[in-house]
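Q: I'm writing a short methods note and want an example of a predicted protein-small molecule complex. Could you take the sequence and the SMILES for zinc ion and return the bound structure as tokens? Please keep the output block clean; save any remarks for afterwards.
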Amino acid sequence: MSKVCINHPDREADTKCIACLKPICNECVVEYGEQAYCSVNCRDQAWKTTANIAEMQERERANAKKRAMKKFIIFIIFAAIVGGAVYYIMNDKDSMKKLKELRNKIPGAESNEK
Ligand SMILES: [Zn+2]
Ligand SMILES: [Zn+2]
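A: Understood, no commentary inside the block.
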């Protein structure tokens, strides 16, 4: 490697920070898991980015769930409206029949009907 450490100009860099890509020597490496960073700042930033991505994915999943829930609720409302309408029409027919029967029972009303 031809690059020198950002902290030690007289030393050759052994690796580079995976966050800012600055060359660093083994002594300056801040390790986090299997990754090498030039500083705690870079490590924290990279960690935050990873955390943000995870958070974003989590939010996206929650949104998808919400959307599915909304669709489900709309379906339920739609089904209730259709069901209600069908029930109303059927009930109305029934009451119309009852009304006719009632009219037939009343003398005089029958002649009006026919
Ligand atoms: Zn860095
Ligand atoms: Zn160094």
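A: Remarks, as requested: The first strand starts at residue 15 and ends at 16. The beta strands are 15-16, 23-24, 30-32, 35-37.
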